[in-house]
């Protein structure tokens, strides 16, 4: 059976503005750094403490060659504060147009998984309230892979193990360069859905074929439906990859 593995934030639900606001708030309060929206989206997928440390480097707040214990403590504080702001907001992000129908009806012939860097609490609330507990065969959250966020392929590799599928029997749906890198490292073909991201096709150059970058998740519907149904009917026996990991059906 074919498998489709979804990132959650920015792919299934419109949660990225919430995460950006929370990170912007946290890093401003703790380090007095103004965070650019584009910078945040480019680093999406990293563990938050690691992302904070990377932002410290980019902004010249720390010496990249001499990271101190104080720098690390501050990055951890940013991560804690960011999570607090998200939970304080008490908003359940809405799915993108057509996504609920895609998951619950269109892709019935495939097994489906979610691999997210968000906390277990955040993931459980969104999945349960938006799609239902039985919508996905496997759900992996960021708390299970602390310190091993994207571009580390570990979360995708574990998803394959739990689903008992081979890398070439799956396709990943991502929205960020680090997520694509993780899928590539795991040997899984990938497509990108930008939705409301400020990123452009050029931000994925060298990572994925341009014709597998979609404006939004709903526009990837036909591609995913065809891929899923081809597997379920036995028409698709394998997925081949070019050097940039594009899919050839």
Q: Can you summarize this structure?
A:
With 249 residues, the chain is an alpha/beta fold. It contains nine helices and eight strands.
Describe this structure in words.
This protein folds into 2 domains: 3-14 and 94-248, HAD superfamily/HAD-like (Rossmann fold); 16-89, DNA polymerase, domain 1 (Orthogonal Bundle), CATH 1.10.150. It is globular, with a radius of gyration of 18 Å. Helix 8 links the parallel strand 4 and strand 5. The strands form 2 sheets. Strands 3-2-1-4-5-6 form a 6-stranded parallel β-sheet, covered by helices on one side. It contains 9 helices and 8 strands. With 249 residues, it is of the alpha/beta class. The chain has helices at residues 16-31, 37-42, 48-58, 69-89, 99-106, 120-130, 154-163, 177-186, 221-232, and strands at residues 3-6, 111-115, 138-140, 170-174, 189-193, 213-214, 240-241, 247-248.
CATH fold label of the largest domain? Rossmann fold
The name of the CATH architecture of the largest domain is: 3-Layer(aba) Sandwich
Q: Count the strands?
A: 8
Sequence of strands across the biggest β-sheet: 3-2-1-4-5-6
Q: How does the overall form come out from the CA principal axes? A: globular
The ordered H/E elements are EHHHHHEHEHEHEEHEE
CATH homologous superfamily label of the largest domain? HAD superfamily/HAD-like
Low-confidence stretches: 235-249
- Which CATH class of the largest domain? Alpha Beta
């Amino acid at each position: 059976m074919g498998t489709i593995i979804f990132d959650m934030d920015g792919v299934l639900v419109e949660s990225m503005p919430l995460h950006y606001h929370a990170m912007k708030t946290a890093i401003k309060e703790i380090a007095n750094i103004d965070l650019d929206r584009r910078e945040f989206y480019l680093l999406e997928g990293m563990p938050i403490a690691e992302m904070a440390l990377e932002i410290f480097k980019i902004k010249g707040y720390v010496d990249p060659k001499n990271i101190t214990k104080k720098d690390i403590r501050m990055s951890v504080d940013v991560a804690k504060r960011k999570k607090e702001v998200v939970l304080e907001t008490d908003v359940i992000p809405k799915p993108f147009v057509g996504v609920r129908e895609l998951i619950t009806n269109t892709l019935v012939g495939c097994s489906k998984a979610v691999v997210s860097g968000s906390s277990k609490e955040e993931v459980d609330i969104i999945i349960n309230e938006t799609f239902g507990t039985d919508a996905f065969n496997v759900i992996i959250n960021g708390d299970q892979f602390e310190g091993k966020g994207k571009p580390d392929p570990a979360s995708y590799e574990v998803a394959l193990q739990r689903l008992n599928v081979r890398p070439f029997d799956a396709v990943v749906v991502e929205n960020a360069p680090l997520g694509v890198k993780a899928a590539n490292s795991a040997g899984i073909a990938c497509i990108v859905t930008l939705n409301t991201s400020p990123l452009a096709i050029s931000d994925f150059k060298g990572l994925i074929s341009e014709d597998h970058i979609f404006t939004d998740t709903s526009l990837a519907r036909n591609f995913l439906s065809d891929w899923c149904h081809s597997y379920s009917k036995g028409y698709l026996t394998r997925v081949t990859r070019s050097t940039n990991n594009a899919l050839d059906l």
